[in-house]
Structures are given as C-alpha cells and as structure tokens.
Design goal:
Layout: H1 7-17, E1 28-32, H2 38-48, E2 55-58, H3 73-83, E3 91-94, H4 100-110, E4 118-122, H5 128-138, E5 143-147, H6 153-156, H7 163-182, H8 193-204
Parallel strand pairs: 1-2, 1-4, 2-3, 4-5
C-alpha cells in the first residue's frame, strides 16, 4: 500500500503526464508497446470510434514484457485488436523497437510510403508526455495527439499492476522529461515547481527503481 502522505504527490505526477489532448481524427493510430494490454484494447476502441483508418503497433520486448508477450509486444497487440474486430488489412506491425525513440523512428519508417500528416499515439496514461515529446523531436511536421484510456491512478493499479512499480514508473518518467530533452531525444517540456517537488519527495521515499543513473 502507498503511504497516505504520498497520495497527493502521486496524483500530481499522474495528472502531469496526462496531456488531456482534445480527440481528433488522425491518419494513423500508433499503439506503443508495453506490458499493458489495455493500450491495444483502447487502440481498437478508437479505431471503431472512427478516430483513424489505419493502425500500427510497435514494440519488440523488454525484460518486463517478455513473459507476458513472448512473441513481442506489437505481435500480441495485433492479436488483441483482431479479437476486438479491427480488420487485419488495416493493421501494420513494427516488431523491432525496444524503446520509445525506436517506436517512433521505426514506425515512421514503416509508414514512409504513405501520406501521414497526423498521428494519434496510444499509450499508457503515464507515458503520454514523454511519447509526445519524443514524437515531436523525431517526426517533425506531423501533427501529434496522445490518447489513453481515461482512468485514475487508483483504478489503474486495481488490476494486475503493482502500486510500487507504477509509482516508480511515474518517478522515472518525470526524470526522463528533462534528461531526454537535454540529450536531444525529445523536445523540452515545462516541469512545474509542484511536479518537481512531488518528484523529489517520491524519490526520497524510495521509488527510485526506474531512475536513470547519475551522469
């Protein structure tokens, strides 16, 4: 269980990474691979809602996904979408990416023969901001919106997700917003003082498993 005095800090980071983009139609919906099958489910829902006519799933495996998705994240995401009625002929699979930068770069290459002016990135709720910043850096000129299943932190961890793991991911994602911009992997994003304070308190409380090493 999360200590009660840290609830507000977790909520601060959770809300920071949710960009709350206004839904709009895009040329393609890109489901970014992860351990969360809900990304594929939500991509299928958005397809059926008419948000995009084409779907691309991207992702190989990470140590945290190989057991759940042994044949690769994108491959399993495709199967989930098929089960939910997305036609096979509108699904593309990019099975090699091992990080968010590769997700964007490899999918851009996969779509190179098509006229793509706008994309919807479908992600875990706490991955939106970094995915957006990465796409704007690596795919300039394309209009990018992010989408995730609308869910609270409490509801997200009610299922199979471990609270400590998700909080550590939130802390790691927050650090990466600044670090990856400094390294040229992503465009800079504002980090409000309240977010910085929440990040510092959660890191001091021991949620450091996903922090990058000191430079």
């Amino acid at each position: 269980m999360l200590p009660e005095h840290l609830d507000a800090d977790v909520r601060t980071l959770w809300e920071y990474h949710d960009l709350r983009h206004e839904p709009r139609r895009s040329d393609v919906g890109i489901g970014l691979g992860s351990r969360d099958p809900g990304v594929a489910v939500h991509t299928a829902e958005l397809f059926h809602a008419g948000r995009f006519p084409l779907v691309a799933f991207t992702g190989a495996n990470a140590p945290t996904t190989v057991e759940r998705f042994p044949r690769g994240e994108a491959v399993h995401y495709r199967e989930i979408a098929l089960e939910r009625g997305v036609p096979d002929d509108v699904i593309l699979v990019e099975p090699a990416a091992r990080n968010t930068g590769e997700n964007i770069a490899f999918t851009r290459r996969l779509l190179a023969g098509r006229e793509i002016r706008s994309v919807t990135l479908v992600t875990r709720p706490y991955q939106q901001r970094r995915a957006y910043a990465t796409a704007k850096q690596l795919w300039p000129g394309v209009d990018v919106v992010c989408a995730s299943k609308a869910v609270s932190f409490e509801d997200h961890v009610t299922g199979e997700e471990d609270v400590e793991r998700v909080v550590s991911m939130l802390v790691g994602e927050t650090q990466r917003i600044t670090r990856y911009a400094e390294r040229g992997f992503a465009i800079p994003q504002p980090v409000p003082a309240g977010v910085e304070r929440a990040f510092g308190r959660l890191a001091a409380a021991g949620f450091t498993q996903r922090l990058l090493p000191h430079r």
